[in-house]
Amino acid sequence: MTRNEGQPDILVTLTGVAADSASKPSAALSDPTRLLLHPLDVGITRGDGIFEAIGVNGGHPLELEAHLERLQRSARMLDLPPLRLDAIDAGVRLAIEQHTSVPELLVKVFVTRGPEASGEPTAWIHASEGPDYSRARSEGIAAVTLNRGYPRDIALTAPWLLQGAKTLSYAVNRSALREAALRGAQDAIFLSTDGFVLEGPASTVILRDARGFRTPPPEDGVLPGTTQVRIFRELEAQGFATVTEHIREEELRAAAAVWLVSSGRLVVPVRILDGAAVPLDCKVTDMMLDILTSVTNS
Amino acid sequence: MTRNEGQPDILVTLTGVAADSASKPSAALSDPTRLLLHPLDVGITRGDGIFEAIGVNGGHPLELEAHLERLQRSARMLDLPPLRLDAIDAGVRLAIEQHTSVPELLVKVFVTRGPEASGEPTAWIHASEGPDYSRARSEGIAAVTLNRGYPRDIALTAPWLLQGAKTLSYAVNRSALREAALRGAQDAIFLSTDGFVLEGPASTVILRDARGFRTPPPEDGVLPGTTQVRIFRELEAQGFATVTEHIREEELRAAAAVWLVSSGRLVVPVRILDGAAVPLDCKVTDMMLDILTSVTNS
Fold first, then answer.
1. With an 8 Å Cβ cutoff, are A161 and B179 in contact?
2. Which regions of chain B does DSSP assign to beta strands (E)?
3. What is the pLDDT of residues A244-291, one digit of tens each?
4. What is the pLDDT of residues A28-70, one digit of tens each?
5. Which of A57, A164, A207, B285 is buried most, with the most CB atoms less than 10 Å from its CB?
6. What's the pLDDT score for residue B297?
7. Is residue B14 scored above 90 in pLDDT?
8. H helices then E strands: how many in chain B?
9. Would you call A78 and B47 a contact, using CB atoms and an 8 Å cutoff?
10. CA-to-CA dists, residue B92 to A291, B13, B128, B263, angstroms
11. Which residues contact A110 (CB under 8 A, 6 or more apart)?
12. Residue B6 pLDDT level (bands cut at 50, 70, 90)
């Protein structure tokens, strides 16, 4: 992953994002090279916080409302105070407006529980031009399946494990990507211990088979995918069948095509899975990319 | 948990802690209220880093060498560069020396992978006087068992899940403590899906039964406990039987006594487990506390 040079990142710091905060919400443009967090902020010391990454295409944020709702859902799962989403929305729009116009921008929103015992979340927004994913999008990538260690029903039986929340505790997700690289692949697909397809470390899985376009449901302990939801909505409008229901490992291996979708890379087809070739469906990949980059956004 | 006021925290920032670092290792005293991390440091954005918490009793760090070795082990598990432990050791001693003399100090060492693509870890040390644990130590606490979601052999079968590494991705550990609080308890003991005792969110479990003093082994995906190892070493020297071997849930519930041990709280007996009374063995608790607070440290 190489960063584009020359287009400076934008940093927006937010105050008063908690609904119960004493201070008024405000967003301030800040120096992106400045130091940011207090050493006792539990966002650092405990990975105790949440985030969202919003793709911005030609200045238009993709599914911003869905991202902010998911941020609120993560806040609830971590027992953080309810967030003032309008203030965060304004911060995201400020970051987009301040960044040089680029075809693809990635805007990340971070909220931590704040410095120990402060009760006041720390929040900021970081906007940067993403790497060039065009080759991965057209040629596809190699992925490996990795055991996530949990049974499929873990989010229902043990909610304290926070499966399905988008937390700052992402060390396992990074570790899975290193394991994939060791196996000669660029990405991973997590499986449950009972043989069901979950998600990528930073993406949602979509496959196509005789039943239509399929993805696992949030009840399976996966992050509800904002990019996936938008794609399914448009596919349905175009008359395609979509199924949000659990997927067995063997169904993944037998699929007519497999994609990993996310806010940054948008849509990347899986070309090789655990060393075996997976058919590419370039027409559908392009259709999905069109869905995501069309200007009629919410 | 209330913090003692009046004894200012000490912050030491470290540079050049990676063995392959271009810069010489150095430790600098820093303002503990200053902002510390770059917004793109993956220690914040991904919980991608490691830490250790070292108890300091009357100025003597407990098992410092074991803590530093465990930090190196965590670094290896996360594929971080090897660390210059001598530089970190010097930083820890500087922090202790600079802090006002107090009976119990907690020194935390943090190492992140650093700002994205920098390849240079960020490292710092934070020393603060701990809360007063005397009541928990003498009266014991209520704990609940919580499903950790993983089978006992997860560290061996899926090392990318980082079980047994002390990472900054501790959101689940904090969430487990909130779940315990909801159930009217002060702490939790994780169980594997196949019914074995693992560890607390921030402690090692020791129990006593007919076989002696027992604790689960690191192969069960638990953090190798520095405090537990010291206690076992001294108990063995005093002629007690110690067993580091897996423990079944029923053995925990039938134990003659149960303790949670860690660098900060040292030794806390479990008085109530899932609502059922557990016998207290105050004599042994005191013996363990004596072991940890005797001055003859490594």
1. no
2. 10-15, 26-30, 49-57, 60-61, 104-112, 122-129, 141-147, 187-191, 204-209, 212-215, 242-244, 257-262, 266-273, 276-277
3. 999 999 999 999 999 999 999 999 999 999 999 999 999 999 999 999
4. 999 998 898 999 999 999 999 999 999 999 999 999 999 999 9
5. A207
6. 46
7. yes
8. 9, 14
9. no
10. 54, 10, 12, 15
11. A43, A49, A50, A51, A122, A123, A124, A125, A126, A168, B44, B45
12. low
Question: Do B175 and A108 lie within an 8 Å CB cutoff?
Answer: no
Dihedral in degrees, nearest 10, Cα atoms B31, B33, B38, B40? 150
Q: Are B47 and B26 in contact (CB under 8 A)?
A: no
pLDDT at B31 over 90: yes
Q: B79–A161: do the CB atoms touch at under 8 Å? A: no
Contact B230, B215 (CB under 8 A): no
* Dihedral sign of CA atoms B247, B253, B258, B260 in order: positive
Nearest to B196 by CA among B182, B181, B207: B207
- CA separation for the pair A150, A128 (Å, rounded): 34
Nearest to B169 among A47, A146, A163 (CB): A47
A138 contacts: CB under 8 Å, gap ≥ 6: A282, A285
Nearest CB neighbour to A147, from listed B3, B149, B157: B157
The alpha carbon of residue B35 is apart from the nearest alpha carbon of chain A, in Å, by 5
Instruction: Give the pLDDT score at B296.
Output: 53
Integer Cα distance of A72 and A81 in angstroms: 9
Which residues, at least 6 apart from B66, have a Cβ–Cβ distance to it below 8 Å? Answer: B226, B229, B230, B298
Q: What pLDDT was estimated at residue A297?
A: 46
Q: Are B164 and B258 a contacting pair, CB within 8 Å?
A: no
Question: B153, B169, B177: best mutation site toward chain A, by most A Cβ within 10 Å?
Answer: B169
In angstroms, the CA B24 to CA A250 distance is 53
Q: For residue B117, what pLDDT is reported?
A: 82
What is the per-residue pLDDT for A60?
95
Strand partners, A189: A145
Q: Per the CB < 8 Å rule, is B45 touching A37?
A: no
Token reading at A242: 């979509």
